[in-house]
Protein backbone atom coordinates (compact mmCIF):
# COMPACT_ATOMS: atom_id res chain seq x y z
CA UNK A 1 0.00 0.00 0.00
CA UNK A 2 1.22 3.49 -0.87
CA UNK A 3 0.30 6.15 1.74
CA UNK A 4 0.55 8.84 -0.94
CA UNK A 5 -1.97 7.12 -3.22
CA UNK A 6 -4.19 6.33 -0.26
CA UNK A 7 -4.44 9.96 0.83
CA UNK A 8 -4.90 11.12 -2.77
CA UNK A 9 -7.87 8.77 -2.99
CA UNK A 10 -9.25 10.03 0.34
CA UNK A 11 -8.83 13.65 -0.75
CA UNK A 12 -10.62 13.02 -4.04
CA UNK A 13 -13.62 11.43 -2.30
CA UNK A 14 -13.77 14.21 0.29
CA UNK A 15 -13.75 16.87 -2.44
CA UNK A 16 -16.63 15.10 -4.15
CA UNK A 17 -18.60 15.10 -0.91
CA UNK A 18 -17.83 18.76 -0.15
CA UNK A 19 -18.88 19.83 -3.65
CA UNK A 20 -22.28 18.21 -3.11
CA UNK A 21 -23.91 20.70 -0.74
CA UNK A 22 -27.05 18.62 -0.30
CA UNK A 23 -24.95 15.69 0.88
CA UNK A 24 -23.08 17.94 3.30
CA UNK A 25 -26.41 19.13 4.70
CA UNK A 26 -27.68 15.57 4.91
CA UNK A 27 -24.58 14.40 6.75
CA UNK A 28 -24.17 17.29 9.18
CA UNK A 29 -27.57 18.83 9.82
CA UNK A 30 -30.25 16.17 9.43
CA UNK A 31 -29.11 13.78 12.21
CA UNK A 32 -28.87 16.58 14.75
CA UNK A 33 -32.31 17.89 13.76
CA UNK A 34 -33.92 14.46 14.04
CA UNK A 35 -32.31 13.83 17.44
CA UNK A 36 -33.64 17.22 18.53
CA UNK A 37 -37.10 16.17 17.34
CA UNK A 38 -36.84 12.89 19.28
CA UNK A 39 -35.80 14.85 22.35
CA UNK A 40 -38.87 17.06 22.05
CA UNK A 41 -41.12 14.02 21.62
CA UNK A 42 -39.63 12.44 24.75
CA UNK A 43 -39.55 15.69 26.70
CA UNK A 44 -41.37 14.14 29.67
CA UNK A 45 -39.18 11.01 29.67
CA UNK A 46 -35.52 12.11 29.71
CA UNK A 47 -34.30 8.67 30.76
CA UNK A 48 -35.88 7.15 27.66
CA UNK A 49 -34.20 9.82 25.53
CA UNK A 50 -30.85 9.01 27.15
CA UNK A 51 -31.21 5.48 25.82
CA UNK A 52 -32.79 6.18 22.44
CA UNK A 53 -30.80 9.29 21.61
CA UNK A 54 -27.53 7.53 22.39
CA UNK A 55 -28.35 4.69 20.00
CA UNK A 56 -29.34 7.17 17.28
CA UNK A 57 -25.89 8.77 17.51
CA UNK A 58 -24.50 5.50 16.13
CA UNK A 59 -27.47 4.56 13.94
CA UNK A 60 -27.35 7.72 11.81
CA UNK A 61 -23.68 7.37 10.75
CA UNK A 62 -24.31 3.70 10.04
CA UNK A 63 -27.30 4.41 7.78
CA UNK A 64 -25.88 7.45 6.02
CA UNK A 65 -22.43 5.98 5.40
CA UNK A 66 -24.06 2.88 3.91
CA UNK A 67 -26.15 5.02 1.60
CA UNK A 68 -23.43 7.49 0.61
CA UNK A 69 -20.76 4.82 0.10
CA UNK A 70 -22.96 2.53 -1.98
CA UNK A 71 -24.04 5.40 -4.25
CA UNK A 72 -20.55 6.92 -4.53
CA UNK A 73 -18.94 3.58 -5.38
CA UNK A 74 -21.72 2.77 -7.83
CA UNK A 75 -21.07 6.05 -9.63
CA UNK A 76 -17.36 5.25 -9.79
CA UNK A 77 -18.05 1.78 -11.14
CA UNK A 78 -20.62 2.83 -13.76
CA UNK A 79 -18.77 6.02 -14.71
CA UNK A 80 -15.55 4.16 -15.45
CA UNK A 81 -13.53 5.90 -12.71
CA UNK A 82 -12.87 2.65 -10.86
CA UNK A 83 -11.95 0.90 -14.10
CA UNK A 84 -9.39 3.58 -14.91
CA UNK A 85 -7.95 3.52 -11.39
CA UNK A 86 -7.45 -0.24 -11.63
CA UNK A 87 -5.18 0.30 -14.66
CA UNK A 88 -2.83 2.48 -12.57
CA UNK A 89 -0.47 1.48 -9.75
CA UNK A 90 -3.35 2.14 -7.35
CA UNK A 91 -3.99 -1.07 -5.39
CA UNK A 92 -7.19 -2.37 -3.88
CA UNK A 93 -5.89 -1.61 -0.38
CA UNK A 94 -5.12 1.97 -1.40
CA UNK A 95 -8.69 2.40 -2.60
CA UNK A 96 -10.35 0.74 0.38
CA UNK A 97 -8.28 2.57 2.98
CA UNK A 98 -8.74 5.84 1.08
CA UNK A 99 -12.50 5.37 1.10
CA UNK A 100 -12.37 4.50 4.81
CA UNK A 101 -10.42 7.67 5.61
CA UNK A 102 -12.76 9.87 3.58
CA UNK A 103 -16.03 8.44 4.86
CA UNK A 104 -14.63 8.07 8.36
CA UNK A 105 -13.81 11.78 8.32
CA UNK A 106 -17.36 12.57 7.19
CA UNK A 107 -18.76 10.33 9.91
CA UNK A 108 -16.54 11.97 12.52
CA UNK A 109 -17.82 15.40 11.53
CA UNK A 110 -21.41 14.16 11.63
CA UNK A 111 -20.95 12.52 15.03
CA UNK A 112 -19.23 15.62 16.42
CA UNK A 113 -22.13 17.87 15.38
CA UNK A 114 -24.88 15.48 16.50
CA UNK A 115 -23.14 14.62 19.80
CA UNK A 116 -22.48 18.29 20.59
CA UNK A 117 -26.15 19.10 20.04
CA UNK A 118 -27.30 16.07 22.05
CA UNK A 119 -24.97 16.50 25.02
CA UNK A 120 -24.73 20.30 25.18
CA UNK A 121 -28.25 21.38 24.23
CA UNK A 122 -30.61 18.42 24.58
CA UNK A 123 -29.46 17.09 27.94
CA UNK A 124 -28.29 13.66 26.79
CA UNK A 125 -26.50 12.07 29.72
CA UNK A 126 -24.22 9.06 30.04
CA UNK A 127 -22.33 7.72 33.05
CA UNK A 128 -19.29 6.95 30.90
CA UNK A 129 -16.95 9.23 28.94
CA UNK A 130 -18.07 11.02 25.78
CA UNK A 131 -14.94 9.92 23.90
CA UNK A 132 -16.08 6.30 24.18
CA UNK A 133 -19.41 7.23 22.57
CA UNK A 134 -17.53 9.01 19.79
CA UNK A 135 -15.26 6.00 19.19
CA UNK A 136 -18.18 3.56 19.00
CA UNK A 137 -20.02 5.82 16.56
CA UNK A 138 -16.98 6.06 14.26
CA UNK A 139 -16.46 2.29 14.19
CA UNK A 140 -20.18 1.82 13.52
CA UNK A 141 -20.02 4.29 10.64
CA UNK A 142 -17.14 2.30 9.15
CA UNK A 143 -19.41 -0.74 9.29
CA UNK A 144 -21.96 1.13 7.17
CA UNK A 145 -19.18 2.14 4.78
CA UNK A 146 -17.92 -1.45 4.45
CA UNK A 147 -21.41 -2.81 3.77
CA UNK A 148 -22.02 -0.04 1.23
CA UNK A 149 -18.76 -0.90 -0.51
CA UNK A 150 -19.85 -4.54 -0.73
CA UNK A 151 -23.41 -4.01 -2.01
CA UNK A 152 -22.33 -1.44 -4.63
CA UNK A 153 -21.02 -4.34 -6.69
CA UNK A 154 -24.51 -5.80 -7.06
CA UNK A 155 -26.38 -2.65 -8.13
CA UNK A 156 -26.53 -1.10 -11.58
CA UNK A 157 -28.48 2.04 -10.64
CA UNK A 158 -28.62 4.30 -7.61
CA UNK A 159 -32.19 3.20 -6.99
CA UNK A 160 -31.04 -0.40 -6.78
CA UNK A 161 -28.33 0.60 -4.32
CA UNK A 162 -30.95 2.19 -2.05
CA UNK A 163 -33.07 -0.95 -2.34
CA UNK A 164 -30.39 -2.86 -0.45
CA UNK A 165 -31.13 -0.82 2.69
CA UNK A 166 -34.15 -2.99 3.66
CA UNK A 167 -31.85 -6.01 3.42
CA UNK A 168 -28.68 -4.83 5.16
CA UNK A 169 -29.73 -1.84 7.28
CA UNK A 170 -33.39 -1.95 8.33
CA UNK A 171 -33.32 -5.41 9.99
CA UNK A 172 -30.34 -4.34 12.08
CA UNK A 173 -32.14 -1.18 13.19
CA UNK A 174 -35.24 -3.17 14.16
CA UNK A 175 -33.35 -5.87 16.04
CA UNK A 176 -30.45 -3.99 17.64
CA UNK A 177 -32.49 -2.74 20.59
CA UNK A 178 -33.45 0.68 19.26
CA UNK A 179 -37.18 -0.08 19.03
CA UNK A 180 -37.48 -2.84 21.63
CA UNK A 181 -34.96 -4.50 24.00
CA UNK A 182 -33.43 -7.50 22.26
CA UNK A 183 -33.72 -9.69 25.37
CA UNK A 184 -37.50 -9.21 25.32
CA UNK A 185 -37.95 -10.39 21.73
CA UNK A 186 -39.03 -13.85 20.62
CA UNK A 187 -36.31 -16.43 21.17
CA UNK A 188 -35.53 -16.93 17.51
CA UNK A 189 -35.32 -13.17 16.96
CA UNK A 190 -32.83 -12.91 19.81
CA UNK A 191 -30.67 -15.38 17.92
CA UNK A 192 -30.90 -13.27 14.77
CA UNK A 193 -30.15 -10.12 16.79
CA UNK A 194 -27.03 -11.74 18.25
CA UNK A 195 -25.76 -12.40 14.72
CA UNK A 196 -26.03 -8.75 13.64
CA UNK A 197 -23.06 -6.43 14.25
CA UNK A 198 -25.15 -3.33 15.00
CA UNK A 199 -26.49 -5.13 18.08
CA UNK A 200 -22.99 -5.12 19.55
CA UNK A 201 -22.58 -1.41 18.86
CA UNK A 202 -25.75 -0.84 20.90
CA UNK A 203 -24.45 -3.10 23.66
CA UNK A 204 -21.20 -1.12 23.74
CA UNK A 205 -23.13 2.16 23.97
CA UNK A 206 -25.25 0.70 26.77
CA UNK A 207 -22.08 -0.09 28.70
CA UNK A 208 -21.00 3.53 28.35
CA UNK A 209 -24.43 4.79 29.37
CA UNK A 210 -24.55 2.71 32.55
CA UNK A 211 -20.93 2.58 33.74
CA UNK A 212 -18.73 5.54 34.72
CA UNK A 213 -15.60 3.67 33.62
CA UNK A 214 -14.86 1.96 30.33
CA UNK A 215 -15.57 -1.74 30.79
CA UNK A 216 -14.11 -4.90 29.30
CA UNK A 217 -17.55 -5.76 27.93
CA UNK A 218 -17.56 -2.50 25.98
CA UNK A 219 -14.23 -3.31 24.38
CA UNK A 220 -15.41 -6.85 23.58
CA UNK A 221 -18.58 -5.59 21.91
CA UNK A 222 -16.63 -2.96 19.99
CA UNK A 223 -14.17 -5.63 18.85
CA UNK A 224 -17.07 -7.62 17.39
CA UNK A 225 -18.17 -4.57 15.39
CA UNK A 226 -14.59 -3.95 14.25
CA UNK A 227 -14.31 -7.59 13.17
CA UNK A 228 -17.48 -7.20 11.11
CA UNK A 229 -15.94 -4.09 9.51
CA UNK A 230 -12.84 -6.04 8.52
CA UNK A 231 -14.91 -8.92 7.11
CA UNK A 232 -17.26 -6.65 5.14
CA UNK A 233 -14.31 -4.60 3.88
CA UNK A 234 -12.54 -7.73 2.68
CA UNK A 235 -15.68 -8.85 0.84
CA UNK A 236 -16.05 -5.38 -0.64
CA UNK A 237 -12.41 -5.26 -1.71
CA UNK A 238 -12.88 -8.56 -3.51
CA UNK A 239 -15.45 -6.86 -5.76
CA UNK A 240 -12.95 -4.16 -6.82
CA UNK A 241 -11.66 -5.64 -10.05
CA UNK A 242 -11.26 -4.70 -13.66
CA UNK A 243 -14.14 -5.68 -15.90
CA UNK A 244 -12.17 -5.32 -19.12
CA UNK A 245 -8.70 -6.40 -20.21
UniProtKB/TrEMBL annotation:
The way it spans or sits in the membrane comes to: Multi-pass membrane protein
> Where is the protein situated, by its record's location annotation?
Cell membrane
Residues annotated as domain ABC transmembrane type-2: 11-243
CC terms in the record's Gene Ontology section: ATP-binding cassette (ABC) transporter complex
The UniProt transmembrane annotation reads: 21-42, 54-74, 95-124, 130-154, 161-180, 222-240
Cited InterPro entries: ABC-2_transporter_component, ABC2_TM, ABC2_TM_bact-type, ABC_2_transport
What UniProt keywords are attached to this protein's entry?
Antibiotic resistance, Cell membrane, Membrane, Transmembrane, Transmembrane helix, Transport
Q: Which domain of life is it from?
A: Bacteria
Any single Pfam family the record assigns to this protein: ABC2_membrane
* MF terms in GO: ABC-type transporter activity
Its GO biological process terms? response to antibiotic
Entry's family note: Belongs to the ABC-2 integral membrane protein family.
Q: What is this protein's name?
A: Transport permease protein
Amino acid sequence: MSPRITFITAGRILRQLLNDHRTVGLVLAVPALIIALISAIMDEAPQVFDQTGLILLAAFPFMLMFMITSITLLRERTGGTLERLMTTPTGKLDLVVGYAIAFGTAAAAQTAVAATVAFAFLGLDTAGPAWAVFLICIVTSLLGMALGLFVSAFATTEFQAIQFMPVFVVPQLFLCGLIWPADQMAGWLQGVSDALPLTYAVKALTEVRLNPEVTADMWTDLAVVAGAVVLATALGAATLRRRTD
